[in-house]
Amino acid sequence: xxxxxxxxxxxIVCLSSTALAQIKEAQVGNVVSIRSDFDYQDPKxxxxxEAQKAKQKADKDNSKDEDVVEPEDLFRVYLTRDRFYxxxxxxxxxxxxxxxxxxxxxxxxxxxxxPPYLEIVDNEGKKxxxxxxxxxxxxxxxxxxxxxxKEIHQLQNIKEAKLILPEAMENMFVRNEKKDKIEKRKFNxxxxxxxxxxxxxxxxxxxxxxVLSADLTRK
Length: 219
Fold this sequence. Notes:
With 219 residues, the chain is an alpha+beta fold. 18% of the residues lie in helices and 41% in strands. The chain has helices spanning 15-18, 43-58, 149-156, 202-213, and strands at 8-11, 20-28, 31-40, 75-85, 91-100, 117-122, 127-130, 135-138, 142-146, 158-168, 173-176, 181-184, 193-199. The strands form 3 sheets. Strands 2-3-4-5-9-8 form a 6-stranded antiparallel beta sheet.
């Protein structure tokens, strides 16, 4: 058991500022795939960026444009469905839920010993926690889970969701003097962690359902 200092922070998310997702489909050889990519940006930073861009566009007398930098993604969420066909046109499927972050201003923990999870409300209004039970892969910047039939069913019937993402209460990025670069420290039991809550926009939940229900017949 890992030791955590848990603080639940409910972040109010503006749908228009965070629904930055897209669905990608592909067929490569005998593999047919569909994926939802969701890029989460801080809503306050994004609102400020959009206001600065609008002001810059409206200010026709401004002879010198100031650089306005779009805020970096806090994290990204992928829901991927792959169908692998054999020579007899039979197939097996793998559905994965992944989270990644390279934002050095945030100290997210992407580790199987302190995993993220979803708090969900289904179509009947029932609240539950979706703890991913089958971790597929993790490193310092990425964690991925293979979804079980039960977890797939929960996502298919989802109405509301919050992503609960662990974040260290100390700086996880340190300079490696020998390599002369900044590296991320690995999580251990002595690191205190906050469990941060992020609302997932309804538009993204609908995209997840689209990924799960899409026709992946090989062409």
